[in-house]
Each structure stands twice: as structure tokens, then as C-alpha cells.
Amino acid sequence: MSKPLIVVNFKTYDSASGMSAERLAQAMNNFADRNFRMVAVVSAFDLASVSASTNGLEVWSQHLDPIGKGSHTGWLEPDLAIYRGAAGTIINHAEHKVELEHVKQLMAMLPEGFPICACAADVDEAIALAKLGPTFIAVEPPELIGGDISVTTADPAIVSDTVAAVKSTNPEVRVLCGAGVKNGADVKMAIQLGAEGVLLASGVTKAEDVNAVLDDLTS
Ligand code: G3P
């Protein structure tokens, strides 16, 4: 089995934007040689600087639009994101929902093998997304996002049920889970429940001691 993923969504946290995004990504990079695939999911504004300031850390975009080059204003156009360092993307996050058609059209525009992680609020949405064949589906109950209780504790069944449903819909799709994930025990539980990694934010972005949290997450 390939390395489990620890995907940290920087969102628009001040502690994970601009110069702070670079510092946080550099801290993550120091743990990238452990047995996890570390991914920083940064603002589009920070793709270039974070990519340039980390030595090979995998950097993803928080969103992309199925928009090509041309007369389009204010969209996140995939080719430019890739040029600026995006090596993957999440899509349909609970805080930035899109139509299924958006995901479908975006996938058709992305280069072969470009990782796309579609977020799902529940098993039904995960099944609908799995039919499109994204690289990953991250199941995140919206009510647990930003909270203190990990999805793996509050609702372990949604993780195992999503894994089962996604695998029976499309065995190629890999499942992550997120919402409230804070520590290494949550990561271990996610893996026990069948997920291939976690998607988290505040546990890292709001940490008083980021290195201690990253150490714990990757131990
Ligand atoms: O994208 C990750 C996210 O929505 C979970 O956030 O703060 O609960 O880890 P958090």
C-alpha cells in the first residue's frame, strides 16, 4: 500500500497565509521524510511562493474552475495554477461547494494523473462523486469541521461506510476523511477505518506548537 496522506488545508487562516503559509509549509516539509505523503493545500495566491520556498513538498490548490484561457474574469484557471506550482487540487469543499458538473468538467481539463480530491459531506455525495472517478474522495461531515472532536471518534461509521460505498462504486478511488482531526491517534483510527489518510486544517493551522502537532500526526 502506498503511504497514507496527511493533507493540510491552509484555508484562509492568517496563520497559514502569505509569509505564514511559507513558514508552515516549510515546517511540514521537515516531516515529509516520514512514512506519510504530506500535502499543503494553499490559497491560489500562495501557490508560487509556497512551491518555491519548500524543497519538493507537494502543494495543492484549494479549488479550481473548469475555465480555459481567454475572456474569463476572476476564475481559478487550471493551467496557470499548475504553472504556479499546483500539483493537485481539492474541489467541492464544504466551504466552497460546486455542482457535480463542475467536478466532471474540471477533471476532463486536468492532465492525466493530476491528483484531485473531491470532498463529500456524506455517503450519498461520496457515491455520486466516486462515479466521476476522482483520485480521492475526502468525507467530512460539515458539522464537525473546525471542532474539537475528530470524525473518527464522533462518527466512525461515516468513514467506514464511505470507504465501503466508494470502493464498491469505483475501486480505484482512494478515500480520506476529515473534520476535527487533531493528532496521531486520529490518523491511526482513520487508517483502521479503511481511509488512506486525513484532510485537516485547524489542528495544524491553529496549533500553538506546529512542530509538536506535525510530529504527533506523523509518528
Ligand atoms: O479541509 C479540512 C477541513 O475542512 C477540516 O477542518 O479544522 O476540522 O480540521 P478541521
Comma- or semicolon-separated keywords:
about 220 residues, 8 strands, globular, alpha/beta, eight-stranded parallel β-sheet
What can you see in these coordinates?
By secondary structure, the protein is of the alpha/beta class. The chain has a single domain, classed as Aldolase class I (TIM Barrel, Alpha-Beta Barrel). The chain has helices spanning 19-29, 47-53, 78-83, 100-109, 123-130, 151-154, 156-169, 184-192, 202-205, 210-217, and strands at 5-9, 37-42, 58-61, 89-91, 116-120, 136-139, 174-178, 197-200. Strands 3-2-1-8-7-6-5-4 form an eight-stranded parallel sheet. Helix 1 packs across helix 2 (47-53), helix 5 (123-130) packs parallel to helix 7 (156-169) and helix 8 runs parallel beside helix 10. The mean pLDDT is 97.
Instruction: Identify every distinct bound molecule in the structure, by name, code or SMILES.
Output: SN-glycerol-3-phosphate
Mean pLDDT: 97
First-to-last CA distance:
18 Å
Q: What is the CATH homology-level superfamily?
A: Aldolase class I
Number of strands: 8
As for the CATH topology, it is TIM Barrel
Radius of gyration: 16 Å
Low-confidence stretches: none
Class by alpha and beta content: alpha/beta
Task: Name the CATH class.
Answer: Alpha Beta
Instruction: Record the strand order, biggest sheet.
Output: 3-2-1-8-7-6-5-4
